[in-house]
Amino acid sequence: QTAYFDEKVCHLKFKCSSVGFDCGFVAKGKSEEDILAQCAAHATKDHNMKPEQITPELKEKIRKNIHKSLF
Length: 71
What we know:
- This protein is 34% helix and 17% strand.
- The chain is an alpha+beta fold and 71 residues long.
């Protein structure tokens, strides 16, 4: 059986640890906006960050670390 990459079942994935946090949180979604919303909620809840601490620079760092995943 041949494995193939199907965009319809592809998801996006982001690991909090990929931007320097000692954290096991992983966001999964179908769009960059899904991932960013999950990350914002996670940052305020689990890292006690205030919304103003989620800077455009941090959002860009997150965007650069969002990857396609089949899982």
